[in-house]
Amino acid sequence: MLQTEQRIAVFPGSFNPFTIGHYSIVERAAGLFDKIYVAIGFNAEKNTDVAVNHRVESIKNALATFENVEVTSYTGLTVEFCHLVKARYIVRGIRSVADFEYERNMADLNRRIGNVETILLYSLPEHGSVSSSVVRELERYGVDVSQFLP
């Protein structure tokens, strides 16, 4: 019997917070891959005021119904984490042309330095304006952001 290689992907991000847009990407990618690691990376350039361990637990709760999704954290390069978990794919969501340009450049670099392919999933139209930074900003001003969170 011919064995096929598992399709393993990493969905990296700071997920501060994990939004309905992120949830939608995981939901759609879960049908494309055998295993997905939602991986919270440490990024010195991003404001990560919510502890990583708290984010891991909260995302695990949000994604508990997905049998092929594991939530974890990592340090270092995303391609190094991909190699560690034997993932050949990175999943990224894009909302706009600006996101596309950034993600295209990152995809090229990740392929060149790590031999990892990037799969881009477009956000659903209703999630196009939802970003973690916008949700954090609204929250700072006391706006109820529950409609933007899973």
Give the spatial strand order of the biggest sheet. 3-2-1-4-5
Biggest β-sheet description: 5 strands, parallel
User: What structural class do helix, strand and pairing data support?
Assistant: alpha/beta
Rg to the nearest angstrom?
15 Å
The 3D shape can be described as globular
From N to C, what is the helix and strand string?
A: EHEHEHEHEH
Q: Count the E strands.
A: 5
**Span between N and C termini?**
41 Å
Overall average pLDDT = 93
Description:
This protein is α/β, with parallel strands linked by helices and 150 residues long. 37% of the residues lie in helices and 21% in strands. It contains five helices and five strands, in the order βαβαβαβαβα. The protein has helices spanning 20-29, 52-62, 78-84, 97-114, 132-140, and strands at residues 8-13, 35-41, 69-74, 89-94, 117-122. A five-stranded parallel β-sheet has the order 3-2-1-4-5, sandwiched between helices. Helix 2 (52-62) links the parallel strand 2 (35-41) and strand 3 (69-74).
In short:
The chain has 150 residues and is α/β, with parallel strands linked by helices. Helix content is 37%, strand content 21%.
